[in-house]
């Protein structure tokens, strides 16, 4: 029983991490039809910025208490700025050229880890997390790492915030209207480009937050961490139905679908790794993806409005 509880909560924590990465990817593709292969690079930027700040290089930041919160905020802010720069400098000029857009984001996704490796080396660096989050607590006979709850809580907050943004704010409504009829919204005097930049900033913030908290989960940061997590993020958005969804109304459903898919992927991976052999959890996720694509190509949520 205790083993099952531990695997379940750990799987939920891993799923929460996948969701933080996949949420921005799903939002950007669902609303803007942009397949951003540089999304993992934004995660790496957020992770390294948090690691740098938590190491005491940023005044007021540190590895404990409020200092760590400040470090996470700094890492998330840096990732958000990087996302805005990416959209303005690279994505916006290529909105009508999807092939070049994909190639450009792939290039950024390869260049950023190489840059981080050149600056801080290719080896993993220990992540200076707070002592309060490095312990465990008891649940039904199992000792659960506290940082798993932090990831789950952060993912829940991001999910609620995204749904409120899309359905209950003026900017969210502008974005959704711009997806449906960009010319009409522009004719009303609304700058849709600013709204799309906002979407990119939100997606980058979610990815950077995932990178910042991913350091807690893995206990370290390395240049390739964003790339490896991006692979599972793509699996999550496919299973969640983002690529099978269409229109602005489907974006809300695809984010919810990504949350559900992230939970499934995290649990399958953890249980498969424990009850089979280490590493077979990745294979189990691939098999799950293949079966779903055969049985329900639209993903678990299909087309939601």
From TrEMBL:
Family note: Belongs to the binding-protein-dependent transport system permease family. LivHM subfamily.
PANTHER family cross-referenced by the UniProt entry: ABC TRANSPORTER ATP-BINDING PROTEIN, BRANCHED-CHAIN AMINO ACID TRANSPORT SYSTEM PERMEASE PROTEIN LIVH
Protein name per its UniProtKB record: Amino acid/amide ABC transporter membrane protein 1, HAAT family
Entry's Gene Ontology cellular component terms: plasma membrane
Transmembrane stretches, start-end: 6-27, 34-54, 66-90, 102-120, 149-166, 195-218, 224-243, 274-295
Keywords for the protein's UniProt record, in alphabetical order: Amino-acid transport, Cell membrane, Membrane, Transmembrane, Transmembrane helix, Transport
Coiled coil: none
